[in-house]
Design a protein that fits this description.
Blueprint: H1 3-19, H2 30-35, H3 50-61, H4 83-95, H5 106-122, E1 130-134, H6 137-155, H7 160-163, E2 172-176, H8 181-189, E3 198-200, E4 221-226, H9 238-248, E5 252-257, E6 282-286, E7 298-302, H10 307-312, H11 340-374, E8 379-380, E9 388-392, H12 396-409, E10 415-419, E11 422-428, H13 436-452
Parallel strand pairs: 2-3, 2-4, 4-5, 5-6
Antiparallel strand pairs: 1-7, 6-7, 8-9, 9-11, 10-11
Bound molecules: pyridoxal-5'-phosphate.
Length: 457
């Protein structure tokens, strides 16, 4: 096989995989998982045939994949991949562009500008905001909150980038009790401390109770709210939080973690959920979850012009002054792949109404699953406002047994979570491929698995 034949072969295997995902169970079987041991070979002493590496991937890894890019995967909030996103990924990887600077990739810089504008348009966020593409919502949260940290401290007369945080005026960080675990990780990463936070009580959906927001704060305040609680999909009361922040301090920053929920902004039928969301100073979201692009694609959006640049610009003698978007001066990465190209391709293909329909369809699927399961003695623990359904079947222990049975059955995949200290089951409709029929079938599978549990469970 020559180099070109090798690539044809890889493309053929990739396309065959995608073509087979519809009818394929979401979970690999035990034999496929055991087969992964075939990778336990010593490092070859010298060169081997590259087609051999591809063959091993196809024969051994492919059967052991979780089929999250099909219609039957409801785990975490993982999302699938649109064919146009995968196709764009093929091309971007073939081009091997370094999207760090326009001088390295004029095409990446151009597509960044267009994708930035379209994203802000479809999400109805301020058109002047800066956008950085990063590895995921964790890093998008960290990037936005690092920009917030530096802005808040600059206003307090401190240059955090140069002088660090030792001796800096303290920033009060306010989060909801239900803030995502990776927000705490991000706070640790940027030196604000994962536990050095004021935690605000939340209601039965995990929303910040705005009457519980702290009073008598002084100095800089960073609030991290969320659009889309990871279990319930609930939205914090952004208007009330923004009003409280404005009344509390003249040096505040409101950040919103909207890893998947931010996309509700694209759906005109959900404006009640997102009231006040545009008043934030920054927003983090993912492309690889609900927008269904490939990993890894997170998006940091910062309304204050120049704030991302202040935090992330780096100076080196060989970096030319440039026109155009300099990604390496707006993100934690220096060299980076052109993640914006897949985002551009999906937005170009779906258009404004297509993104709204994507949100609508998944949310309708979640509604349908909730209704079917409610009729089969399940407790639906959340108001199903977007794509998340939180469930219990009998006790927490029975729910655990049910989840194990669903995963053993393998046709669909969904997982466990902790809700108010006890195990619950979480169903997330995040794949563009999941139709209402698929959702109805998933509910049938869940009920079938529940009926198989022995009574004492
Ligand atoms: C998934 C998720 C994150 C983390 O996103 P990654 O892309 O995995 O880094 C943060 N917040 C919420 C609400 C999420 O659902």
């Amino acid at each position: 096989m020559n180099d070109i034949e090798l690539l044809h072969e890889a493309a053929r295997l990739a396309v065959e995989y995608v073509a087979g995902t519809d009818g394929r169970p979401a979970t690999p079987d035990a034999a496929a998982l055991a087969g992964l041991d075939a990778f336990d070979e010593p490092l070859p002493d010298g060169p081997t045939d590259p087609s051999d590496a591809l063959r091993l991937l196809s024969e051994v890894a492919d059967p052991a994949t979780m089929v999250s890019t099909g219609p039957n995967y409801y785990g975490f909030v993982n999302g699938a991949t649109f064919p146009v996103a995968l196709g764009a990924a093929f091309l971007v990887n073939a081009w091997d562009q370094n999207a760090a600077l326009p001088v390295m990739s004029p095409a990446a810089a151009k597509l960044h500008d267009v994708a930035r504008g379209w994203l802000l348009d479809v999400l109805r966020l301020p058109g002047h905001a800066d956008v950085g593409f990063v590895t995921g919502a964790t890093v998008a949260n960290a990037s936005c909150m690092a920009a917030a940290r530096d802005e808040l401290l600059e206003r307090a007369g401190w240059d955090a980038k140069s002088d660090g945080l030792f001796g800096a005026p303290p920033i009060t960080v306010v989060v909801g009790e239900n803030t995502h675990s990776t927000v705490r990780k991000s706070l640790g990463l940027i030196g604000l401390g994962s536990d050095r936070v004021v935690k605000v009580l939340t209601d039965d959906q995990g929303r910040i109770d705005h009457t519980e927001l702290p009073t008598h704060l002084s100095g800089p305040v960073l609030v991290c709210a969320q659009a889309g609680e990871v279990n319930t999909g609930a939205f914090d009361p952004f208007d009330e939080i923004a009003d409280w922040l404005a009344a509390t301090t003249d040096n505040g920053w409101l950040h919103v973690d909207g890893a998947f929920g931010l996309w509700a902004l694209a759906d005109p039928s959900r404006t009640h959920l997102v009231a006040g969301l545009h008043r934030a100073d920054s927003w983090a979201t993912d492309g690889h979850k609900w927008l269904n692009v490939t990993y890894d694609c997170g998006i940091a959006i910062v309304a204050r012009e120049g704030a991302l640049r202040r935090t992330f610009s780096s100076v080196a003698g060989y970096l030319p002054p440039e026109r155009g978007f300099e990604a390496m001066h707006h993100t934690p990465q220096s060299s980076q792949r052109a993640r914006q190209v897949e985002v551009w391709a999906v937005l170009r293909t779906l258009g404004r109404s297509g993104v709204a329909e994507l949100v609508q369809r998944a949310s309708d699927g979640a509604q349908l699953i909730a209704e079917q399961l409610r009729g089969a003695d399940f407790d639906v623990l959340n108001d199903v406002v977007i794509n998340q359904v939180l469930l219990r079947y009998g006790s927490a222990a029975t729910t655990e047994a049910l989840i194990a049975e669903i995963q053993r059955d393998g046709r669909i995949w969904c997982g466990a979570t902790q809700w108010r200290g006890e195990t619950a089951m979480r169903v997330s409709v995040s794949s563009w491929k999941t139709t209402l029929d698929d959702a109805a079938r998933a509910a049938d599978v869940i009920v079938e698995c529940a009926r198989r549990l022995t009574p004492h469970e």
